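Just scan my protein:

. . .
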Amino acid sequence: MPARLSPSRHLRIGRSKAGLGLFARVPIKKGQFIVRYSGRKLRAEVADELDNRYMFEVNNRWTIDGSGRRNRARYINHSCRPNAEVYFVKHVIKIRAIKNIKPDDEITYHYGRDYFDTFIKAIGCKCMACRKKRAEIRSARSRRRRKRGRA
């Protein structure tokens, strides 16, 4: 496994529970660089005027418009229990693994509290961790109802 992944050879875009997602084709080790979030660098006041969910705020002055399809990182979905994280090198946004990732695993990172509250919370989080949690709650409620019915 090379120290740097080649996005076209080591990653694939595919169907996920949340639409399209980015998946590993090869094992990715914890701490390994995965992909760069790329796009046009815009001043924050310009970005604020655009209606685009692929805007990634670098700081209070700069935002990256990641809406271009060549930006493979735009396909990384949110998870409340992610396997990757964002880090910055100057104004460059990079994503690295925070867990070992197996081939065919979907790559996810936490989008941050502001994005979560603005776009995700109202419709309900669809990440696997939250889906599993909701299923466990439904199952526990069902068991309690059955138990009450027998008492």
